[in-house]
């Protein structure tokens, strides 16, 4: 049987090897899994990361992450409750009362015969977990390849920051989400009048380089006047014309991207942290920071515009095939330089990281 052409092959979806390599490689990085405020002491929270069920809970003030599956008969621990065993808090399974303490150690089996020690096989592995930037982050491996990302503007009092957590999962991979955010040549077509102009679709002159754990892209471009480029609170802004601004994009880990837009009005930052629920489902956490038009009454307008731009992107990104980014050698996609240089460099990077390996 002759091999399928790339277009026909794309509709079949990624191979089992491509999916397995994506899951195993991405397990070596930190990923955000929920808002920090969603986790309250005494209440476990269940999430899914790379196809695995994970339970988050605070035990004696310590943040704990472990499989959301009891070693006994596979019930979800996130349906259970926090109890005290031997003077320390533990998470109790709702099915038969097995309890697990910090580190995933099984500390109680009610059905165990008196005098019999709890078998070590009853223990669960504990995952690395941290709180940063108002999010809970989990790494499924014992040694993250890169540190947690920086976000200097979020902690700078000169900036006002807003959060946008999309309730609905995006039906694509997290690497596709990052590529879509990094891709500036779609601005005139998907976001005409906001981020671009179809009469001027020429790509900017990109500079792309790696620095430490980040891929950095920088370019100058022209965009229509609007909320994101002109300080609406400045009475002298008047009827502004097109605005020249500089983008500096920082891609980290490789599922986090920070877009810094510097214009005459000031700095506007778009920060996206993606959570790979699985190879074809992504939870997104957005934060927007600005150092102009700082009035709280302007927040709704900024959030409304951000949501509008996201809804423009969503159907297009979800339509892309295959969901995983294929390696260059497959020739399933046809990036064109120099406009696609940032995407080509990102794709090369995730190939090196073992995230994109097969069709």
Compact overview of the structure:
This protein has 359 residues and is of the alpha+beta class.
Explain this structure.
With 359 residues, the protein is an alpha+beta fold. The protein has two domains: 31-139, Rieske Iron-sulfur Protein, CATH 2.102.10; 152-352, Naphthalene 1,2-dioxygenase Alpha Subunit, Chain A, domain 1, CATH 3.90.380.10. Helices cover 17% and strands 31% of the residues. It contains six helices and 17 strands. The chain has helices at 6-10, 16-26, 174-182, 187-190, 299-319, 341-352, and strands at 31-35, 45-49, 52-59, 62-67, 81-85, 88-92, 99-100, 106-108, 128-132, 135-139, 160-165, 207-211, 214-223, 243-252, 256-263, 266-278, 281-290. Strands 11-17-16-15-14-13-12 form a seven-stranded antiparallel β-sheet, with helices on one face. Strand 14 and strand 15 form a beta hairpin. It starts with 5 loop residues before the first helix and ends in a 7-residue tail after the last helix. The mean pLDDT is 92.
Write the layout of secondary structure elements.
Layout: H1 6-10, H2 16-26, E1 31-35, E2 45-49, E3 52-59, E4 62-67, E5 81-85, E6 88-92, E7 99-100, E8 106-108, E9 128-132, E10 135-139, E11 160-165, H3 174-182, H4 187-190, E12 207-211, E13 214-223, E14 243-252, E15 256-263, E16 266-278, E17 281-290, H5 299-319, H6 341-352
Antiparallel strand pairs: 1-10, 2-3, 3-4, 5-6, 6-7, 7-8, 9-10, 11-17, 12-13, 13-14, 14-15, 15-16, 16-17
Features:
2 domains, 359 residues, Naphthalene 1,2-dioxygenase Alpha Subunit, Chain A, domain 1, Rieske Iron-sulfur Protein, alpha+beta
């Amino acid at each position: 049987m002759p091999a399928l052409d790339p277009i026909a092959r794309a509709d079949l979806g990624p191979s089992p090897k491509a999916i397995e390599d994506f899951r195993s490689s991405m397990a070596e990085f930190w990923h955000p899994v929920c808002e920090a405020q969603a986790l309250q002491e005494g209440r476990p929270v269940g999430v899914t990361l790379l196809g695995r069920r994970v339970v988050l809970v605070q035990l004696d003030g310590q943040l704990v992450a472990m499989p959301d599956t009891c070693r006994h008969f596979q019930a979800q621990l996130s349906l259970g409750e926090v109890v005290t065993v031997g003077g320390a808090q533990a998470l109790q399974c709702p099915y038969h009362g097995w309890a697990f303490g910090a580190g995933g150690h099984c500390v109680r089996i009610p059905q165990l015969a008196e005098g019999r020690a709890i078998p070590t096989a009853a223990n669960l592995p504990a995952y690395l977990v941290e709180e940063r930037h108002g999010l809970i982050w989990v790494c499924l491996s014992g040694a993250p390849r890169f540190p947690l990302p920086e976000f200097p503007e979020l902690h700078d009092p000169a900036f006002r920051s807003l959060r946008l957590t999309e309730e609905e999962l995006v039906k694509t991979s997290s690497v596709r989400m990052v590529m879509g955010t990094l891709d500036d040549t779609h601005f005139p077509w998907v976001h005409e009048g906001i981020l671009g102009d179809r009469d001027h679709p020429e790509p900017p002159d990109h500079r792309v380089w790696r620095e430490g754990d980040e891929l950095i892209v920088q370019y100058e471009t022209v965009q229509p006047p609007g909320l994101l480029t002109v300080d609406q609170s400045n009475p002298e802004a008047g009827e502004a014309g097109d605005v020249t601004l500089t983008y500096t994009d920082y891609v980290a880990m490789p599922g986090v991207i920070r877009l810094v837009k510097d214009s005459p009005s000031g700095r506007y930052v778009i920060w996206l942290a993606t959570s790979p629920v699985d190879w074809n489902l992504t939870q997104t956490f957005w934060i927007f920071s600005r150092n102009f038009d700082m009035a709280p009454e302007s927040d709704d307008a900024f959030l409304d515009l951000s949501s509008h731009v996201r809804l423009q992107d969503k159907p297009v990104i979800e339509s892309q095939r295959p969901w995983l980014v294929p390696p260059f050698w497959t020739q399933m996609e046809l990036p064109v330089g120099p406009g696609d240089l940032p995407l080509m460099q990102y794709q090369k990077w995730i190939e090196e990281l073992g995230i994109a390996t097969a069709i």
